[in-house]
Amino acid sequence: MGLWLSLLLLSGGALGGLVDNVVGMGFGAISATVMLGGGIAPVVAVATVNLAKVGDGALASLSHWRLGNVRWAWALPLALAGVVGGVAGALLLVHLPAQFIRLAMPALLLATGLLILYRFRPFGSLPAVSGGSGAALAAPSASGRWRPALALPGPLGLRLAGIGGLAGLLNAVSGVFGPFATAGVVLMDRSHPRYAVGTVNLAEFFVASAVSITLFWQVGLGELRWGLAVPLLVGSAIGAPVGAYLSRRLPARVLGILLGLALVALNAWSLLRALN
Question: What are 158-169's pLDDT values in tens digits?
Answer without folding.
Answer: 899 999 999 998
